[in-house]
Amino acid sequence: MPLYQTRDEYNYIGKEGLRRKDGYEKASGKALYTRDISFPGMLIAKPFVCPYANARITSLDTSAVEAYPGVRYVLRYDDPWWSENGWQPGRPSYGWGAQWDDLIGQQGYFEGNRMGFAVVADTENICDEALRLAKIEWEVLPFYVDPEAALEPGADILEPEVNPDTNMRIDTREDETGREIWGDVNAAFDASDKVVEWKWSEEEESPAAAEPGVAVAVFRGDYLDLWAHNQVPLTTTQTINRYFGGWLKINVHTVYQGAQFGFANWIFPGGYKTFTMLAAICAQKTGKPVKFLFDQMYWHNRSYENGVYYLKCGFNMDGTINACQQLVISAAPEFNAKMMECTKIKNYRGMHWCPHFNRAGNVCYRHGMRSVGLMNNFFAKVAAETGLDPTEIALLNDGCDGEDMDWVTENIKKPQDMPLRDSLQEVITIGKEKFGWADKYHGPGERILPNGNYHGVGFVWCLGWANDPNQYLANFQGTVAIERGDGHVRFLARHADGGWNHETTICQIVADELGAKYEDVEYRPFDDVGQDAAHGEGSAGLVRTSVIAVEAARRAKQMLLERCCARGRNDCDPLFPGLKPEDLDTYESTIFEKANPENVKTFSEAERYQTIRYEAIIAPYTMTRHNWDIHYLTRQCSFIEIEVDPETGEIILKDSCHVNDVGKAISPETLHGQQYGGSVMGVSHNRNEAEVYDPATGVRLNTNLIDYKWFSFNDMPGPFSCNIVETGMSYGPYGLNGCSESLGATNSTILLYAFWNATGKWVSEFPLTPDKVLKALGKI
Question: How distant is the alpha carbon of residue 504 from its chain centre?
Fold first, then answer.
C-alpha cells in the first residue's frame, strides 16, 4: 500500500484564489530578507577576492588597511584563530557531499575566489576602499579554464602537492562496480542495429541569485544568533556548533530568502557554512554585530556545471535504446541516475574524468540540468538518426530502473495500490494537443517559412521529482497548536522560505487535515521553535515537509476530539457529554456531532474549555525512516517551436508548452508560477547563459547581470502554455511530487532537437549562440 492514502474530498487543497500568507509582506515591500537585517552599531565585512586565475600570496601587508579610518578588524589567512580552533584553511573541496572548503586561504584557485583577508568596517564603502590598500606580492601560477586542456600531455601541474604527475583527480574508466555501470553494455552495443558516438559540451552558468551571499552574526555573551541566507537552518546550526559554544548556544534565524534559482546550499558549504562562519568569526573578534557580504555571482569553490561529454548510444531502428555510455570531463562526477530511474534501458556505463582546473564552482546550480539534459541528448540523437517522432521514442523507452511499464504496473503499481495510469502517455497527449504538434512536426529542414527562416520544433521529457518523503527526516518534526484564546491554529516548525509560497501550501494542508478555516491557520517558518521542518531542497521540500504537516494535523485533530469528550478544566462536564471521539468531526474551525450536525462547538470554545491561554492542543510528530523502494512513476514533458534566421544566426522562440504530472496539486497557482519560472530557466540555459573567460588570463569577463545574459519572461514566447496533470502516483501525501526544479532541468537541452528539426544540423556546443548557429549552417 502507498505510504499515504488520499482524502476523499478537499476543502482547501487544490483550491485557487486563496490569499497568499506571505503576499502582503512581499507585495508591500515589508518582507525582511537576510540583507535587510540590521542592528545598532552593526559592522560590515567583505572579503578580498583573487584577481588571477591561479595565484598564491607570498607576502601580505595589511597595515594600510588596518589604519584606514572606519576599519575595525582585518581577518587574515594567517590569523591565529584558524589553528587555535582546529581549522586548516586554504584548500577547496570538490563535488557532491563536500562539507568543508576554504574560508580565507593563501591561494586563489580561480579569479574571484575569496582569499587573503577580509575587512570589517563601519560601512560597505569603507570595506570596498580598504580592500584596495593591501600590499600583496604574488606567485602567479599556471592555469586552465578548459578541463580538457588540463589533461593534455605535458600540461602544467596545477596542484603538485596533491598529485605531482597529473591534473587528474578522479578517473572511473576502469570502475565497473556499483552505480557506474548497469547491465552488459558491450553486448548491448553489439546487438544494436546502429551505434553512434558524438561529443557534447556546455558552458558553466552562474548562480545569479536575487539575494547574493550574506550572513549576520550577533553574540550575546556566550550565545550566538545567526541570520543565514540558505535553506537549511538546522544544518547551519549543526555545522557552526563545532566552533562556537555548543548546541543550545546557537540560534539560526531564517527570514525570507531572495530566490536562489536552484542553488544547492543545502549540501555544499557556500550557503550554510562559509558566510555564517565568517560573520561569526568577525563578530567574535570585534564584539559587534557583523553582516558579512559577498557580492560575487559565484559562491563556491570549484567548477562543477561546466562539462565536456563523449557519448555513445546503441539502438534499434524502431527507436528502442539498448545501451548508453558517457564519459564526462568535469570537476565532479555524476552518474546519470535520472535516465536510469525513468527508462527501461538496462545497459548504461558512466565514466568520469575529474581534473583540477581554474573556474569557480556552481555545484548543483539548477540541479539536474546535467543528468536530465544528458538523457535528452541521447533521445534527441536517436530521434535524429532514426527519423522517428521523438514523442514515440520516449513512450517506447518509458519505464523504471531498467524495467518496462508493463512490469512496473504488475510489480509496483498494483501491489502498492497505485492508480493504474500511464503518466507519460497522459502528459504527452495533453502537450501535443495544446501545442499543436501534429501540425507543427515535420522532418529535419523540411519547412522554410516565407520570411526565409527555418522552422523547427523540439520535445523533451523526464521523470517528476518524487523523492522518498521519509528520507533524511529523522531530525525534523512539526507541531500543530490551537492557541491564543481564539481558536487560532499554528503550525510550528522552522523552515526557510525561498519564494516558493511554502507558507500558503502548508496552511492549506493543515486546514484540510485539521478541519480548520484556511484564514485561521498560520505558519511562520522563520522562528526557532525547537524543531525544524524538512530542508528547503527545491522540489523535494514540499514532499517532505508535507509529511510532517499531515501527520501533526491528524494527531492534533484526534487529540482535539478526545479532549472534547473528556472532562475539562476544573473538572467541568465534557463539551460533548456521552459521545466518543469517533462520533465527532471537524469542519471550518468547528467540532460537530456527525449524527446531529447542529450540536456544534468552535475551536475557540474547545480551547477555552480545555486549556488556558499559554497552553495548547499540541501534536508533535517526528518522522522515522521507512524502507520504501522508490519508483519514479510521474512524468513531465515540454514542447517548443522556433525559427532560425540563417542570415543572423538568431533563434526566435515562437511557442512553448509544458506539462507536469505533479501527483497532486496543493496550490495550482504556485505550481503554474514554478512551471513558468522553471521553463524560462531551462530555455535560457540552452540559448545564451554561459560564463565567459579570457583564455589569455583566465579572468571571467561577464560577472554582472548586464554582461551575463539570461532570460526574463519577456524573452519567452507568450503566452506559453503550462498544464498540470494529477495522477497521484508519488510517495508524498496525496501522491504529490515536485515540479519546478525538474522543469528547468528538462528544458536545459530543449533546443537540441528543435535546431536539428529546423536545419538538419547537429550542434554539439551549448549555449546555442548566433556564432554557433552560423558555424553549423556553414556561414562562418
Answer: 20
